[in-house]
Amino acid sequence: MSVVxxxxxxxxxxxxxxxxxxxxxxxFTIDKGDFAAISGPSGSGKSTLLNMIxxxxxxxxxxxxxxDIDVYKGVDLGRVEVENTRWASAPEKGKKRRTTIPRRLxxxxxxxxxxxLGFIFQTFNLIPVLNVYENIEFPLLLKSKNPASFxxxxxxxxxxxxxxxxFLIEKVGLTExxxxxxxxxxxxxxxxxxxARALVTKAPLILADEPTANLDSKNxxxxxxxxxxxxxxxxxQTTFLFSTHDSRIVDMCNHVVHILDGKxxxxxxxxxxxxxxx
Length: 278
Fold this sequence. Notes:
28% of the residues lie in helices and 28% in strands. The protein has seven helices and twelve strands. Helix 5 (187-199) runs parallel beside helix 6 (217-232). The protein is globular.
């Protein structure tokens, strides 16, 4: 079962009078249970790809399916440019140029981000005024009336939600730190909070952009070992997709999409290592 499928995806960025094609017709599928990576050197387009899969950026053409949902079905991507996070549609005769994402598409993307995707950022992006428990719980407070945004956890009682957050805190080894603020944690501990927060809605796909970039080797090994254990946990059934040039993460993955200059050079399936080699 696939959790994300890209078909002939392109991404073009306007640079003054010029246009730069960062992603050039990329297609691949990530299956449920994969411990996967998009790998390539700096400037290869891997972060751009991850941002498009995470619905943070919009492709210039092609299709992206999250689960069985075609995200941009019915949207004429050929008439759209996104520059500095602003939507800019090509003007139609007699109509004004649209400068905001259409409401229906915006609602669809927002719902998919909450129900289908979890994010682990390089800089952790924890909320400083909240403690560990509150940072992890926070995505559960953001539900809307849109049924597409619902996660399995939304059906939990208040007691079950608390037990679930406590379970994740224990899983990432932070039980003794649950009441501590983010500023009182080490980099490795903050990353553990970010992992638990990404898992809290039971999203089927977790995206991580260069997860070891701000960690030393020891913490990197601990964090990747934790992610591998979570990936193997049959109760969680979590799929991970990394954007990375760290060869040690690539060695741990069972599926690696190698890219260079915006193109796939190899779509590799293999047996991954269990440990991050220091």
